[in-house]
Amino acid sequence: MRVLGKDKHFFAFGPNLKPAYAVAPGEEVVIETMDCFSDQLTSEDQLITSIDFSRVNPATGPAYVEGAEPGDALKVSIKKIELQRLGIIVTVPGLGVLGKIVREAKTRTCEIGEEGVDFKGIKIPYSKMVGVIGVAARKETPCGTPGRHGGNLDTKVITEGATLYLPVFFEGGLFGLGDLHAVMGDGEVCVAACEARGQVTVEFGVVKDASPAWPFVELGDHYYILVSGDDLDHAFREAVFYGVKALQESNSLAWKDAYMLASMIMDVQVSQLVNPRKTVRVRLSKKYVSLEGIIKALKSELPEELRGE
Ligand code: CA
Ligand code: ZN
Question: In a designed cystine with 248, which of 20, 35, 146, 258 is the match (CB 3.0 to 4.6 A)?
Fold first, then answer.
């Protein structure tokens, strides 16, 4: 299988990205990744304050996906995530949900073994995932910030077996990924997870004219719509709006009935609370929504009344 090496990487999703690799739809490729610190931390003696901060959150790529044009959806199927043994987690004063009471930077290593992660003797089962994943955005956006283009989504369901749909803004999409985690809880409360180096096997596809307003994921029996915003209330509102819309489109319901159905069967969840924009998601069972319904819903515009404050 072809390997896209981590020597080609970038730190911002934006309109000036130039392709480093070209990939055809249907071709499986292995993408090597550095960890979110660009592999600068290797022991507990090194603090985050000692690293080059302009090099955090690298994404390997960009990969030009043949046939992906503005207005399409880029389909990314995650086949396999393989991690190296060294995991790193840090605290940083001022960062994370409780940043106000974090007095000092700390680095801990965790061992990523056969059975799972070992953190200070506590055994944690894996939930391997990809933190940073996206395409070139219309506006220059650091890889540490999530948005409509993807980016630092830090979402647990972006894992083996998942398929992520992203909007395409530029020819070829200009895709990149990085920031693998061996395990992370919803919220990623201390600002980092078990950060790991590794490689991801992916296959790309293109869905013509299906550019979604926000990224969405298919995993197992569910779809997830991922919305990021400066303000959590707003992000939740927008995610709920598109979830209700997906139920309406999938079942030919009146809007008010879809709203009531959502209240009964749709789960609102948190992806992460610690990045420059927060990411939330709604979870919908395939029993109630179809791929066509979600694509149609994510083409609609957010009503004026729900925008901003
Ligand atoms: Ca991250
Ligand atoms: Zn990370």
Answer: 258
